[in-house]
User: Which sequence fits this backbone?
């Protein structure tokens, strides 16, 4: 069960772990440093993807059981069609996160293990692409959200009409 107290405890615990790792991060030998980089660039995004898939599965299971218990087939059909967009958005967000973080990690490893400047340049390009993670939600909403598109269209038509 997810409660406010448990959520606060997990959040504080994760913040303390991040602070502890951050304080000792630069004093570590290269082997441990690369392991921590691997955890943050590979294991963490994959974990986010797995958790989101499990969350979607549980939400759908709960919606199906609620519809079956209440005997509301028509309500269930409208609920499942409305939940498809958030499902696509969560999966797309997780996959993009895994893709970009994994790309940074692979480029980092290649730049560390190789003395070729090409891989160092690839690492810097991957880091630059990682910055796109902060902007891709707009495009996912634009692609998958019908209401978002209509409100954005209304906003732009209102702005163009007033000028």
Assistant:
């Amino acid at each position: 069960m997810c409660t406010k107290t448990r959520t606060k405890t997990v959040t504080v615990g994760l913040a303390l772990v991040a602070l502890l790792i951050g304080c000792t991060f630069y004093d570590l030998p290269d082997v441990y440093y690369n392991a921590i980089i691997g955890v943050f660039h590979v294991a963490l995004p994959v974990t986010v993807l797995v958790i989101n898939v499990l969350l979607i599965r549980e939400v759908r299971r709960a919606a199906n059981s609620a519809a079956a218990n209440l005997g509301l087939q028509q309500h269930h059909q409208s609920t499942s069609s409305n939940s498809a967009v958030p499902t696509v958005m969560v999966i797309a967000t997780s996959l993009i996160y895994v893709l970009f973080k994994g790309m940074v990690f692979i480029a980092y490893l290649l730049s560390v293990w190789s003395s070729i400047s090409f891989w160092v340049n690839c690492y810097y390009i991957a880091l630059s692409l990682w910055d796109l993670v902060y902007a891709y939600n707009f495009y996912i909403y634009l692609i998958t959200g019908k209401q978002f598109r209509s409100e954005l269209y209304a906003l732009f038509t209102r702005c163009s009409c007033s000028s």
Summary: The radius of gyration is 21 Å. Residues 104 and 124 are 8 Å apart (CA to CA). The chain has seven helices and no strands. The chain has a mean pLDDT of 77.
